[in-house]
Amino acid sequence: MHLEQKRRSSMAGLRIHSVLVTGANRGIGLGLVQHFLGMPTPPQWVFAACRAPTEQQAQELQRLASRHQNLVIIPLEVTDPASIKAAAAQVGERLGGSGLTLLINNAGMVILNALDKETLEDMTHVYTTNTIGPLLMGQAFLPLLKKAVQDSPGSLLSCSRAAIVNMSSSGGSIEEVTLFDMAQIVSYRCSKAALNMLTKCQSLRYKEDGVLCVALHPGWVQTDLGNIEDTGSLKPTLTVDESVRGMLKVLSSLSEKDTGTFLSWEGKVIPW
């Protein structure tokens, strides 16, 4: 099957009015934005959030925005509550009374410390970005997600109605602790384990509002974050395109029974 046909078939079940992706200037975030823009019926609004929209790292986003009127670049620092509040206001204004269908908390970071080298400062920085950021994003964008629920017919949870997707990692699985011998990255692992608990808590609280919540492991992907130096000769084999295509296929199939779960890009349940 041709690449473009694969891309379209993987998203056939998704009907999204609007989506916001954090960390959208590179890697998986940028890949998600590109795939949403390439959907057979693209979202009316694709909000691509990143820390520095005017700098060189966001050049590809800027190029896409010049070609797609439905793509809006949003300045956002997920560790800054004021920035999150401003982003929510900007998105709400652009939506003009309609809701936000999908919030994808993709922005994340890793610091390459072994256990005996972890510091208060590094642990705090990673946790604030990877865990507290998604917490505050969920709080700030809940009114827009609830508005999407009101605008959507039916009562069943789905990513086409309203959903929060938290980008997690099998590195945060307490049972699997993937590649620990090669990269201890304790602060990253702890932040993702905490993100998984946050996702579970969000799923229980926001279910009454009609919002599906899920933690997704994108696989070991060929990105700046995926290519961590400590893994030596072992390198990620999954491309951004393969990961994103798989995750969108998973999102298109999620229903009420899946809220609060921890899934891989292939749709497999990952142990907590």
How would you explain this protein's 3D organization?
It is a single chain. This protein is an alpha/beta fold. The protein is built from seven helices and seven strands; from the N terminus they run H-E-H-E-H-E-H-E-H-E-H-E-H-E. Helices cover 40% and strands 12% of the residues. Helix 2 packs across helix 7 (240-253) and helix 4 packs parallel to helix 5. The radius of gyration is 17 Å and the shape is globular. The relative contact order is 0.15.
- Biggest sheet architecture: 7 strands, parallel
Average pLDDT metric: 91
Helix content: 40-55%
In spatial order, strands of the major sheet run 3-2-1-4-5-6-7
Distance between the ends: 35 Å
Number of strands: 7
Shape: globular
Class derived from helix and strand content = alpha/beta
Brief description of this entry?
With 272 residues, the chain is of the alpha/beta class.
Secondary-structure map:
Blueprint: H1 3-10, E1 18-22, H2 27-37, E2 45-50, H3 59-67, E3 71-75, H4 81-95, E4 102-105, H5 120-151, E5 163-167, H6 186-206, E6 212-217, H7 240-253, E7 262-264
Parallel strand pairs: 1-2, 1-4, 2-3, 4-5, 5-6, 6-7
What keywords describe this structure?
about 270 residues, alpha/beta, 7 helices, about 10% strand, globular
